[in-house]
Amino acid sequence: MSSSRINRRSALLGAASVLATPTLLRAQSSDAFPTTEEAISTQLPVRRNVSSFSQQNWQNHFDQLGAGALLADITSRAVHYWGPDGTYKLYPSSVPMSEELTKRGYTKVVRKAENPSWTPTASMRERDPLLPVRMEGGEPGNPLGTRAMYLGWPAYLVHGTHDTRKIGRQSSSGCIGLYNQHVEELFPLVQVGTQVRLV
To answer: Are the C-beta atoms of 71 and 56 separated by less than 8 Å?
Structure first.
């Protein structure tokens, strides 16, 4: 019985090597990679990463740096921060689910909170009647995560999230979400009064 297994195994391996030989020989030949073929990078747009975000210059968005600046880029799903001391940070973010929920323009940070409580807006509760009336900070499931920076527009925030699947996606009701570890890094850098732009 054991000798027939060895013979069968040997036969299968032998057949596989015979079938693979033409492919291996072609890969070693000089015409395997024709030089007349156009490079892939000129045929298709190159995407550097999943979110396609790249470093920005604050001068393209703000007249002066002042106390610092935050830029939330809805298209690339990224948040840029420039500090008054020249600090630059770039983070992946979640963005609003739809154009109707997206607000664009200039505002500023008006308040900051650690372990923020969450009160769904009336429109959120209309879309999902099962939402709680309020969630205290630190409660499991609180969508604001560990830190929140409230913007001058009512109900718009830059905040953390416990649901990491949301980052890099259109998944919010208007806010800009960050991984908790990123919002915790950004939180002490951003002052009340920091200018904000959503594009």
So the answer is: yes
Residues 95 and 25 in one domain: no
**Active-site residue, selected from the candidate residues 61, 80, 162, 175:** 175
Instruction: Count CB neighbours of 35 within 10 A.
Output: 6
- CA dist., res. 151 & res. 198, Å (int): 11
pLDDT digits (tens, 9 = 90+) for 76-132: 999 999 999 989 999 999 998 888 888 999 999 999 999 999 999 898 899 899 999
Note if 175 is an active site residue.
yes
48, part of any domain:
no
Are 82 and 116 in contact by the 8 Å Cβ rule? The answer is no
d(CA 23, CA 72): 50
Domain range for 15:
1-37
The model carries a pTM of 0.71
Is 182 among the catalytic positions? no
Residue with tokens 């983070």: 91
In the numeric block, which tokens belong to residue 170?
């259109």
| Other beta carbons less than 10 A from residue 124's beta carbon | 17
